[in-house]
Amino acid sequence: MANYMPSRKDSPRATITNFGRNVEFQPAAVFTPGSEKEVLGILRGHPGRRFRAMGRLHSWSQVAIGEDVLLDLRHLNSVRVETSATGAAIATIGAGCQIKRVLGELERQGGYTLPSVGLISEQSIAGAISTGTHGSGRRSLSHYVTAVRLAAFDESGGPVIRTIFTGSELEAARCSLGCLGLILSVQMAIRPQYFIEEHLRAYQTLDEVLAAEEEFPLQQFYLIPWRWTWLAQHCREVDGPRSLFAPLYRAYWFTFIDLGLHLALLALVQLLQSPALVRAFYRWLVMLTVVRGWRVVDRSQNQLIMEHELFRHVEVELFVTRSRLAGAVEFVRQTVCAFGGEAAGTSDVSLADRGSYTHHYAICIRKVLADEALLSMSSGRDEASYAISLISYARPSNRAGFFRFAEYLTRAMVQQFNARPHWGKFCPLTAADTESLYPRLAEFRAICRRIDSRGMFRNDWAADVIFGGQAPTPRA
C-alpha cells in the first residue's frame, strides 16, 4: 500500500503515502525490525525521539503519521494457537500480521477463525485493533483482545517489554491509537470456523430493514443514493453445510459487485465526470445487477469480507446509537442532496457548497455492539451503535468536494447526533469533540501517562486530538 521499499536500515526522509493517497508524510527515519530484540535496539538507539508503528496504511486519518522514527513491523507476523487456563482457544498474533494471513493460519492450525472481521483483510492486526475495526452485528475486533504485548520505556528511560492483560489498562490497550507504545503482539479470543447464510433483499423504509435484525443479526444494509431505497445484505450464522453453489455466488459477487459495479462508477466519476449519469445509474440501473433472494451458505470470512481494497478510495464513517439512527440517516440524505445541488437538501449548507459534490457510492450501515474499551467508537454506550459509511472513488486530485462534504457532515453530526467518527477513516475531530464524545478520555490519558510518561509514542495528531495539545516531553 505504501510507495517505498522498506529496509532494515535507517532510511532518512522516505516519503510515506497511505492507501487512499490523502495522507503523506516524511519520517526522519524508517526501520523494519525483524524481531522484538531489534525493536528494543531501535528504541535504545534513539533517545529523546518519538516513535510510531506502521501497519498496512489502510487508514485515511492522521493516526498513521509518524513524524520522527517510524517502525514497519511486518516481519512480526507469527500466529500461534493455544488453549487458555480456562480451556478456551486463544491466538497470539504478531503485530504486523495481515488479517488475511491470520485467518489462513487459524484455519490451518485447527479450523479456527476470528470472532469478528471487517470488510477488508489487508490491515495488520495491530492497526485493526488500534483503530476499532469492526464488522456487522458483533463487537469490534478490539473487544476480543485478551492481552497486548508492547515495547515502551521504563522510568529510567530504558526500553522494556510489558504485557497488559487485565483491567482498565487492557481496555485502553484494546484501542490505543498507538499512544501506549509499540504493539509487538496481541492475544485474542478465537472460535471454531462457522458458516454464514446470506441473501440480498430490497426495502422501501429503514423500519423494514431494522425489523429484520432479529432474524438476521449479522446483516449490513445500504441506502441507495438518488434512488433513496434500501438494500439489505441479510446474514446470520447457521450450522452449514456450505452451499453447492457457493463458488458460483462468490464468482457473481466478485464479477458484478467487487469489479463490475466499481468499474462502472470509476467510468462515470473519473472519466466522464457526469453527476447526471451517476444519478441515472443509481435510479435506473444499479438494482439490475443485484440478484435478490438467492440464499447461500459459506464459510464466515468468505461471506463477511469484501474486496474494497481493489480500487483506491477515501472514506468517512460515523457511529450513532440506535435511538438516533433514523434522524441521522435522514440528515445524511438531506446533506447528500444539498451538496448534490438538489432542492431537497438541508437549508444550512452554504450556497458555495451546494452542487459541489455528487455522492456516488451506496451508503453502508453496520451494527456494532458495545465494546469493553475506553476509546473505541462503540464503547461506553448503553445501546448498540450503527456505523454509517460514505465512500468516494474520486481521483486524489479531485477530492476537494468530498472533503468539504465529509467535514460538514462530521461537524454537524457530532453536534446533533453525538456521532463518533471512525479513528481510521477521515477523522476531522477537534480536542473539544473528543472530550465531549468519550466520557473515559481522562482515564485513557492517565493510563498513557503511566506507561508512556513523556509521550514518546504520540504523533502530533494524537497530541492535539487526544491529549488536548499537550506536547511530548523530550528525554534528556
Summarize, please:
The protein is an alpha+beta fold.
Structural class: alpha+beta
Q: Mean pLDDT, nearest integer?
A: 93
Helix content: 25-40%
CATH class of the largest domain: Alpha Beta
CATH fold description of the largest domain? Vanillyl-alcohol Oxidase, Chain A, domain 3
Q: Order of strands in the sheet with the most strands?
A: 16-13-15-14-18-19-17-20
Overall 3D shape: globular
Based on the coordinates given, report the CATH architecture of the largest domain: 3-Layer(aba) Sandwich
Low-confidence sequence ranges = 1-11
Provide structural commentary.
The structure is a single chain. The protein is an alpha+beta fold and 476 residues long. Helix 9 runs antiparallel to helix 10 (400-417). It is globular and about 65 Å long. It has helices spanning 36-44, 99-108, 125-130, 167-174, 206-211, 246-272, 275-285, 300-304, 322-339, 400-417, 431-437, 441-451, 460-465, and strands at residues 16-17, 24-25, 29-31, 51-54, 69-72, 79-83, 89-94, 112-113, 145-153, 159-164, 182-189, 191-192, 195-203, 220-224, 229-238, 296-299, 314-321, 363-368, 385-392, 420-421. Residues 1-11 have low confidence and may be disordered. A hairpin with a 5-residue loop joins strand 9 (145-153) and strand 10. The protein has 2 domains: 79-192, 2-Layer Sandwich (Uridine Diphospho-n-acetylenolpyruvylglucosamine Reductase, domain 3); 195-431, Vanillyl-alcohol Oxidase, Chain A, domain 3. An 8-stranded antiparallel β-sheet has the order 16-13-15-14-18-19-17-20. Strands 6-7-11-9-10 form a 5-stranded antiparallel β-sheet. Strands 3-5-4 form a 3-stranded parallel β-sheet, covered by helices on one side. It is built from 13 helices and 20 strands. 30% of the residues lie in helices and 22% in strands.
